[in-house]
Amino acid sequence: MNLYPLLRPLLFALDPETAHEVTLKLLQTAHRTGLAQLTTPRLADHPVEIMGLTFKNPVGLAAGLDKNGDYIDALAALGFGFIEIGTVTPRPQPGNPKPRLFRLPEHQAIINRMGFNNLGIDHLLQQVSNSAYHGILGINIGKNFDTPIADAADDYLIGLRKAYPLASYITINISSPNTQNLRQLQQGDEIKNLIARLKEEQLRLHQEQGRYVPLVVKIAPDLSDEEIRHIAQLLKSYAIDGVIATNTTIVRANIAGHALAKETGGLSGAPVKEQATYVVRGLAAELNGTVPIIAAGGIISAEDAQEKLAAGASLVQVYSGLIYRGPQLVADVLAGL
Ligand SMILES: Cc1cc2nc3c(=O)[nH]c(=O)nc-3n(C[C@H](O)[C@H](O)[C@H](O)COP(=O)(O)O)c2cc1C
Fold first, then answer.
1. Annotated catalytic, 268?
2. Ligand 1 pocket by Cβ (under 6 Å)
3. Domain that includes residue 264, residue range
4. Full-prediction pTM beyond 0.85?
5. Which of 38, 102, 252, 276 has the fewest other C-beta atoms within 10 Å?
6. Number of compact structural domains in the chain
7. Candidates 131, 175, 176, 314; catalytic one
8. Three-state secondary structure string covering 180-236
């Protein structure tokens, strides 16, 4: 039974950040009381094997919806093939002042400038330990807003070391537009040095702990062809395990004239779809299957997901589509496979 069409007008009457919190709390309650299990259809498996992991299906939850890992079990019960939590930073931080989250229903889009609001990695890891979920769990790590960009690698190394024992894979987020200069880490020698240090530490942790945890890099849609090629070459030469394409866009061309178009932040949902697919296609051409691609950006229907898979992705992730379509989106995408 799909209750979301009934709930959506009520949620959309609330300011977006309140709606976000209310929805997750409702979902948690529905899960704990067994109500969610009654209303969620059982989904057939569509296994995908990449990065040495078996995903029960190719539809994942994108990072940023459960930044602190507070809702892992309730979200997993919606049928996702994998869940990515975070972005989490070494120390807790409040994020940007509110309002920082905006809905654009006319465009099936969202603008956010949350700014990595989170309770810190220690809290998140505690939540992972407390959860009953045994499926694939990605932990997405970032840097604190007040860590100088020159020291960014230190924050990522803290995240990598702490998350390593509990993550199925770890995502290096260098593509949020809401932390000053973060996207600089996608360029030239900065990305090369960062990847080199993280890869070295991953291999050391593998030796030390006897378990290999894949390392994934998440990139922006706002990259030139040259930048896409450069990143792809580095992913290959440092044997990075996967790439997520893409994060939100700072481009506003697709929502020009909208009252909220001038809000600072990352735009997601339908308006980023084409740009994200373009990046997936560009990566696929360079990578030739050597590094698997996880696609995100504007997946709001089964067809959107298929477009991403046809462009060369092995898995997809959704965020904005869930806001507009509800959890039924997962079943729809799987039915379209
Ligand atoms: C409110 C909001 C918060 C987000 N926070 C994060 C985050 O913390 N880390 C991250 O890697 N991506 C974050 N994202 C980006 C999504 O994970 C995803 O890459 C992007 O929204 C494109 O997918 P979509 O069009 O399905 O939303 C966020 C997106 C939204 C809408």
1. no
2. 62-64, 67, 87, 101, 110, 112, 114, 140, 173, 176, 218, 247-248, 268-269, 272, 296-299, 318-321
3. 47-336
4. yes
5. 38
6. 1
7. 176
8. CCHHHHHCHHHHHHHHHHHHHHHHHHHHHHCCCCCEEEEECCCCCHHHHHHHHHHHH
